[in-house]
Structures are given as structure tokens and as C-alpha cells.
Design brief:
The protein folds into 2 domains: about 5-60, Arc Repressor Mutant, subunit A; about 70-255, Rossmann fold (3-Layer(aba) Sandwich). Helix content is about 35%, strand content about 20%. The chain is built from 9 helices and 13 strands. The strands form 3 sheets. Strands 6-5-4-7-10-12-13 form a 7-stranded parallel β-sheet, sandwiched between helices. A 3-stranded antiparallel β-sheet has the order 1-3-2. The longest helix is centred in the N-terminal third of the chain and has 15 residues, at about 5-15. The mean pLDDT is about 90.
């Protein structure tokens, strides 16, 4: 089989199954690991897949644009990659911390899994996350108010003024997309200044980005990748992203979503 035929066949298999391992390519085509990785690099450069640790996954759409009324509570099927990232983030929370939890799905999973016995103060601009936390007796919730969007959260002038008056120990942030060249970005310009205000008032900024969000760009940049003290993602993240982020001295933790 010619190289071009093999690469076309690999792309077809990934589209059918969603993923493939380097070891599987070696076995199927009787080639070396280096040759298999070279095939994956070529296919990724053509936009046909996304490389990961030990293999590749089907490519995701370049843009992520939530609907105007999107709310994490509407997603009934558990997204294991998001849940794995959320659970790892919780491990960084200490007693008496004042923390900000992002309004995104990974933040919703954090709220659901935050143990009741941990005495913390949680800032949130999401009524959905506030509702999840309000019955947990040891958790104090500060709802950052203002004009509420159709998605159930606030990020206007009044919300920003509130957050500027609170010192945050750790901010757990997640935006629509994350790339090395454009940083963290969102589709709605109204959230940019709020995101900046949270990060400026936080001692530690932790970015929570499942691999589905990485390597993508939305419209409005919020911060650079290097503005995060720590990034947490899942093990399907692109090898290239890890290498290039490491060159920028960005600290990254990857978690395995299997068994979640």
C-alpha cells in the first residue's frame, strides 16, 4: 500500500470510530511507530484529525458558538472529559478559600461535585451554579449580580464592580476556546471585561479546558495562555499543543477521562 493510500485509510477509520492509536496503525499497516506518527502529522496538517498522546481523534469544528439560551443544566448526557477536568480542579480547593467558579459546563460539574464538608466561599455569576451550591451547608455563596442574560448569568458593569471588591484566592476559568496564538476567547464581547476583572483580583488563575476547546478560536480574546498559573485538560489534548505550551513555560496537567 502506498503512503497516500494508507493515510487516506487512516483518516477514514478515524471518521468511523472517532479515534485511533499509534500502536493500532503499526499493527494494521505493518509500519514503525515513527512512520505512524508521521502519517498522523501529515493528516493533522491537512485538518483531517487532531493528534493526541499515543494517537489521534476525529477533528472538531473550528468554532464553538453556544446558542443564546445555552445553560449547562440542559446537557443531560455526562461529558466525561469535562467531568474529569472538573474533579481535578476540585483537588486544588482548600478550606477557607475564596474561589470563583466559571459559568461553563466544567464549572457546573465542579459545583455538583464540590464536597459539602469543605468550608469555602464561592463566587459565581451564574444562577444555575448558585442553585446547585445553595443547599451545601458549609459552602458560602456570593452571587455576583447585574443584568441577567438569557443564559442565566451576569457580566455587566454592576457584576464587574462587585468582583473588584472581593479578593479571590483561586479563580477557575473556562472560555469558549483556547489557542496559543489568540489565548482564551469567547463569542460575546460583554464577558471580556468581567473575565479580566476576575483574573486581576485572583491570586491564582486556573484554566479548565477540555481538549475539545483547545486549538480553537472564538471572536474576542480574554487573556493569553501564559496568564494562567495552571491549565487542566484531558489526555486527548494535541501533542503539539503540549510541546508548544511547554516552550512558553505554561504549566499543564492532563487527566484521563476513562472510568469517570
Amino acid at each position: 500500500m502506498f503512503m497516500e493510500e494508507r493515510q487516506k485509510d487512516i483518516a477514514r477509520k478515524i471518521n468511523e470510530t472517532g479515534r485511533i492509536l499509534v500502536s493500532e496503525i503499526q499493527e494494521m499497516y505493518h509500519i514503525s511507530a515513527d512512520c505512524a506518527r508521521r502519517d498522523l502529522r501529515v493528516l493533522e496538517s491537512n485538518g483531517l484529525l487532531q493528534r493526541t498522546h499515543g494517537g489521534a481523534i476525529a477533528v472538531n469544528p473550528k468554532g464553538i458558538y453556544p446558542t443564546p439560551t445555552y445553560n449547562p443544566i440542559d446537557i443531560k448526557e455526562v461529558q466525561t472529559d469535562y467531568l474529569a477536568v472538573a474533579k481535578r480542579a476540585i483537588e486544588y480547593i482548600e478550606t477557607k478559600d475564596v474561589i470563583y467558579i466559571t459559568t461553563s459546563l466544567v464549572g457546573y460539574y465542579m459545583a455538583e461535585n464540590l464536597p459539602e464538608y469543605v468550608q469555602v466561599t464561592v463566587l459565581t455569576n451564574s444562577v444555575t451554579i448558585a442553585e446547585v451550591l445553595r443547599k451545601k451547608m458549609n459552602i458560602s455563596v456570593i452571587l455576583l449580580g447585574g443584568e441577567m442574560s438569557y443564559r442565566g448569568h451576569c457580566h455587566d458593569f454592576y457584576t464587574i464592580q462587585m468582583v473588584k471588591n472581593i479578593r479571590i484566592n483561586k479563580a477557575f476559568m473556562s472560555h469558549t476556546a483556547l489557542s496559543l496564538d489568540f489565548g482564551a476567547s469567547i463569542h460575546d464581547a460583554a464577558g471580556v471585561e468581567f473575565g479580566k476583572a476576575v483574573m486581576e483580583n485572583s491570586s491564582m488563575n486556573i484554566g479548565l479546558y477540555p481538549s475539545k476547546k483547545i486549538g480553537k478560536n472564538s471572536i474576542h480574546s480574554v487573556c493569553r495562555v501564559s496568564d494562567y498559573d495552571l491549565l487542566i485538560t484531558d489526555s486527548n489534548v494535541s501533542e503539539d499543543f503540549l510541546i508548544q505550551a511547554g516552550e512558553l513555560e505554561v504549566v499543564i496537567e492532563t487527566v484521563d477521562a476513562k472510568g469517570i
